[in-house]
Structures are given as C-alpha cells and as structure tokens.
TrEMBL record:
SUPFAM superfamilies: Fibronectin type III, Galactose-binding domain-like. One of its GO terms (biological process) is polysaccharide catabolic process. This is Fibronectin type III domain protein. Residues 511-596 form the Fibronectin type-III domain. It comes from Cohnella lupini. Keywords: Carbohydrate metabolism, Glycosidase, Hydrolase, Polysaccharide degradation, Signal. GO terms for molecular function: carbohydrate binding; hydrolase activity, acting on glycosyl bonds. CDD domains: CBM35_galactosidase-like, FN3. It comes from the Bacteria.
Amino acid sequence: MRGRMRWPGMMSLLAVLVAAGGAGWPSKDARAAVGTLTVNLSETSEAFKNPNMGFRPSVYIGSTNFPDKEYTSIYKHYIPYTALENLASDSVQKIKDWSNTAWAGLENRNLKVVPRVVIVYPNVGEYWPDGIPHTDTAQRWLSDTYKNRMIAFIGKLGQAWNNDPRVAAIEFGLFGNWGEQHIWPDKFSDNTDRIPLSMQQALGDAYVNAFPNKKVMVRYPDTFVGYPFGIQWDSFALPDDVSGGNGEIARDTWRTQINSGEVAYDWGDQSNLGGSPDGTLGSVNNTNYVIDWIMRTHTSSLGWIAEYNAGNSAVAAGATSMQKKLGYRYVINQASYSGSVQPGGTMNVAFNVTNKGSSPFYYNWPVEASLLRADKSVAWKGVFTADIRQWLPGTDWNLSTKTYNNAPASNAVSGSFTIPSGLANGTYTLALAILDPSGWKPSVRFANTNYYSGGRTPIGKVGIGGDPSDQNLGSFNSLKSDNTLSYNLTSGAYDGGLSGGGGGDTQAPTAPAGLSNAGVTSSSVSLSWNAATDNVGVTGYDVYRGSSLVGTTAATSFTNTGLAASTSYTFTVRAKDAAGNASAASNAVTATTSASGGGGGTASYEAEATGNTLAGGALAGSCASCSGGNKVGYVGNNSGTLQFNGVSAAAAGSATLTISYLNGDASRTAQLSVNGGTAVALTFPSTGSWTTVGTVQTQVTLNAGNNTIKLSNSSGWAPDFDRIQVGTSGGGGTTGLLLDNYDSSPSWPSNNDLGKWTGANSFLNGAGVIESGALKLQYNNNGWLGSDVTQSLTGYTKMVIRVKGAAGGEQSHFRIAIGGVEKTLAEFSGNTVTTSYKDIEIDLVANAVNRNAPGQLTMTFWHGGSGTVWIDEIRFV
C-alpha cells in the first residue's frame, strides 16, 4: 500500500486538504516527509454543558441541593448573611467551613456556583448580624455601622472565595431586598429606592479590592457606573422592564464583564414568556423572543427558565435551541499540524475558532495541545500562548435575520512545541482542549463533531520518529452525555510544555513585601521593597499608582516623577517572571509630595494609619474620595477620639496644620490638642456631603522630634477625618482642593475626587482613556467633558490645570466654563500648552468666576481644533 495514498474510513469526517511532501506515502525510512496536514472540522448539532454558562438554576436559602440537569454546569446560591457571619469577630474560616459543607463534591461533578449573600429576603426571612440596628426599614441600609460592617465582611468573602475554584462569579447581594441593591416598595427620604451613590462607592470599592480574580455582577445597569461589574437582569426579557435590558445594552460592558439574569414569571406581561419555563421553551415564538434578548445583551446564563421539564419533547427542543445560543460556543473550523516529528524536534499546530454564541468566556483558561496514545491516555501535552477571552461573538443582533450584523471573527491560534526526545516513536492522536487551571483538566468543550469523552477534540494523527500509520481517529463520543469532566480544589504548576519551548511555567512569583516610602519631593515619590521569590526566577517589577501602571524595573526600588506638589498618591508593586506570570499586589503605601517652591515642604499623616490611637467609638472606614481610600469617623459625642502619633518636626516652632475632613451635616466643631496641651476649638463647615473632602487650616506649635495631635469633642459629634498635613514654619497657605487627578480611583468616567458626577463623550477615543495617570482626550472639532463642583470655592482663588498637548499650542482649541464664565483656556490664563506637563493657572477672582456657586466645570472641544491633550490634574488653590 506504500505506492498510493489510502485514507481509512473516519477521515471522511476530516477531509484532508493538504498533505505536503509528495503524492503518496514515502518509505518507512523517510524523515518528516508528510509535512503539514490541514483538516476541516464540522460543527456539532448538539447542545451540551460548558462551564460558567447556559441554564442556571437557583439553590435557595436553607438548601444545599444541586440536582443534575441536562445542560446545567452553574448554579446561583442564595446564602443568608448569618450563615457566614453573625458576630463581627467571626473569622474567615467560618465562611470557608460553611462553603466546604454546602458545596461538598461539586468539583467531581464539574459544577460551579454564583453565590449571592442576602440580609433581607422578603416573605422568607431577615438575616441581620449582631450589632447592626435594623428597625427602620430605610435608615438601616444607610448607617455607617452597616457600611463599615459590610466593608469588613466583603473583605472576608474575598479571602474565602476569591481563589475558590468552585466559585464561578459573585453576585453583589447584601444591600436591600433580595440583595438586589434596592428597598422597593419602601423609599429613602429622597423618594428613591436604589442604593445611594455614597454606598455604591464604599461597597463597590470593597468588592473591587476583595475579588481581583472573580467577576462581580450587580442588579441595575444605572448603578455602580464605572465599576468593573456585570449585570444580573432579574427581570430578563420581561416587557415591563425593557428599560432594564436597554440599559444593559447601553452599558456595553459585556466584552469583559458577565451579563446574567433570571426570567421573571411572577409579575408583569407574560404574553411573550408563556408564564412559566415550559411556556417559554414549549413555544418557538416565545423561545426566539428570549433568544433575541440573550443575543442583544450578550447574556451568558439564565435562571428560573432553567426549571423546565426536559421530558416534554417540545420544551426540550426549545431548551436545545436556547442552550446553543446562551453563552459561548466555540467551533474549530480548520486546523493544521506537523504530520511527522522527530523526538526532540518541533511540532507546529495552528487552528482557527469562531464563537457562535452570545458571550465570551471571562477567564483566561489555557488552551492545550496533546498527543494521545492508542488508549487515549496522554503521552505529551503543552499549552498555547492564547487568550480565549478574546474569542468574541458577533455584535448588533438582527431581529429579522436572527444573526449578528457583524459576524463573529475567526480567531487564529498557533504554537510551536518541542517534542521531548524521550517520547517513544509511533503514531499518536493530536487533540485540543481548554483546561480548568484548577487541576489542569480539560473542561471547556469545543462544539465540534470530533469529541472524545473527557473533554478533548481530536484533530488528526501525528507520527513521532516517522510517518503516521493512518489517519483513523476512531469513533467519537456525544458531548451532551459526557459527565466525566471535573476539576480540583487545589492545583500546582502545569506539568506540560509551553508553546515556543520551555517548561510551561505557570507559577506566579510571591507578592513583594515591605513596600515603603523612601522619600518625596514636590514632584516625585521614591519607593523601595523587599525582593519577591519565584520557582524559576523574578525578572522584574511593575509599579502601579492607583490602578495605572507607571513603570517597570528590575531593581527593588523606583522613583515616580512628574507628580503634582502637595498631593497624596497610593502605590503598589507586582513581581513578574519570564513566562509572564504576575504576582498579587504588594501592600499599598500612600505618600504625599511636598509643597512646591521653598519652605521645606509638607508632611502628610493619614487618619486611619495603624500608628495612630483611636479611642472610644472612633472607627476607621472606607472612603473612596479620601486620601488613602479611608477615613476615621465617630469622633466625639461617645468619647471617641483620634490622636495622630509621630508627627515630626525638624525644629521647635510654629507650623501650618491643614486638616482634611468630611461633613455632610451642618457646621461641626472639634477640639484640637497638641502634645497633651490645652485644647482649642476649631469649626468645620459643611462640605456638602459625607463623600466630599474639605480642609481647615490652623497654626500649631510643635516640639522638635515627634509630636501628638489629638482631635475630640466632648459635647457633640466632630466631622469625619481624612488626614492632616503639617508645613516646617511660617504663614503656609492652602494645600488646595483636588477635583481630579485621573488615577482611576475612582474609575473614569464616574465620579471625581470630590465624589461628584463627572463624565465625557464624543471624543475620538470615546470618553477619553486613562493613560499613565492622566486623562487622554483625542478630539476633532468635537467632544465635551463635565465635572460637578457644587460646593463653595470662596477659600480658593485659582484653578490649576496640569496639562500637556501632542503638538503644543492647544490652549485655544477648547473652551472652559465655570461659575458663570466661559472662555478658551488661552483667554482664561494667557498661557500656552506645551508638549510637557505644565501647571496652567486660571485666576478665578480676576476672571469674575462665581466662587460661591461654581456649579459645574465643563470643557468643550467643538471649536474648530483637532489634536490630543492629556490632563494630569485639576485642583483649586
């Protein structure tokens, strides 16, 4: 048979297109003569389970029953708060113990959960932990006691679940009825029922910090704007809540954030839903109606509808149609590979894949090539350098044609693998798989007819040390009926190869420890840290200011330059290795640059610093608009006191003390005592809200060396305190009011550093992008930026904009409006924009700006200019 080409039976399924190296099989003594083989693969007609997608039933309070269902790989789990924590002193281990009991064995069934922790589940129960007052149905959700308890609890959830492989994603929960961030039918005092902005910021920041490795979903698309959260539309496809679906579409975050939901059958117009899961799926029209919403919103999983009766043939047909659209559906179209490889040689593998579903897969799980023995056991394996999160579906769903107007892309993946020299000669089956990193087992299944039980997609035969004996892949298995897949609760390093050679290093370095402030100037902060360790070797460190990468170094020190004077910045560091693995973040350190000009600079001390003394009821809590992200409240009234320790002075004498505070009430007072001396009373005017930071200045006399500064109020409440800043001697002057320094904290667009609304639109780069800690705006006779101020600026005389341009001279390209005055930047300042950052001052008094009621700062770019500017910071001084 060597004289002519012969393809045994199963190759009719593969249709070999190219067999480089000659028209017939060469002799056994030839080396790698088969060359590259290319095959076409077929999409399966089956619907089947895949991780983190599809029909998603719910497990309700009091139950830990996860029944088998034909397409289910993911469950929502409603969890009462008190099952995880009752006392504030309850440990993280209590959450872990509960999880291990409730979710025992899920890994063996390849099931994962989306937990939603609830405090109030109407008509079922309320699960308030000890210590949180909750008699007032509205006020109980707004107290600082509740907020601070939730922030701490979310941190515990993160420690328990952020790296738990059983957890597919997190539903925000906690706040409001059903944990849906509303209190309907009750109302707050402002006649709304949604979670207030200040609580969104506090709890949203807590979830971002607690769950860097898990996706988080919130109930409403108009809440938590700017946060990296997906949507749980729990009135999915209901005609009475079209605004919810349209809001989800407009939010347009599905490429990186999960959209999920629940078809509501207990209220509203059911004419397109049939009133029940069977009513939906048993009707072609109703099924297609829901599929239209799935495709428009790029939804990956749906609940309640998952409770259908699979024994009804019409319903089962509808479920099959929906499962094939719901979530991702990866189809390999074509693959090419080296037909013959010598031991120690290189095997090239390439394939292209299309996502024919509605959503991406949201975690970076590895794609593996393997060589299988005749019994389908693995003889060799290695992972590609590929990111399956980028395998996106189409966009712009057409209701008439039932297709995306913009078809999904064909994603090309390729790799070159070094075959071990010790691999025995013979014929092997090349297979592809997507692995769950928890155990490195095949998990995500391709939607192709080529399928072996256990999760691998066979491509063709490869000869090691000679030509393959045949291309017969044998019989294939059903995807739907395969229940053999699983994952592990723990996982070590990947033990296979890596595309491009190497040992497949997937172990991240340890987090750098001991990050500290090594010194500041008016425009720079120097950092140092302890070296990280790695199983192979650390190659460098990435330095972050807020969430922005500001530099990379191979050393254990770094200086960030080009900063604004008298400004607080927060830094973290991550280590990385040669394989691209990055560590967790180091400890965060906050440093404040010194004042510009002469006079010795300013030292900053955070209220929440661990070296301070908090007595009585004084309590540290999260504050998105505060320096360092925290503040201290409950000072006064209940004997609560805050004492700053270690306030340093180079020499004895007078110093300017600037106190940053928050006061959403009427004017409050506090007593200030230095080094235990006689207290003096200070007045703290309202800042307009409990998320807006203001400053008060006073002169204090310090001793040389370390000093203490104590704040108290024996007869009433003091304001909340952010930090103090101390100048070495003299009259001082204001430290300024920061509007925004564009460090992605809070994220852009969302709120400015005053906790007020801010946004932009119609630029060539949308709302602009944060680049190296500055807002980059690309414009061509269009674009606007707006930022609420809504507080008095009578204590400030100038607005300072730190800005640079791509070409220089952009000062006449845009107009600025504030306090009833509108002019170009050039007209306001008489200054020019250059290609390096420059502080341009606008004299508010000379320009007759209404400082008492500035209202909103706006910038408009539709005045004939085109170019690019970077705004690094806007502040008032």
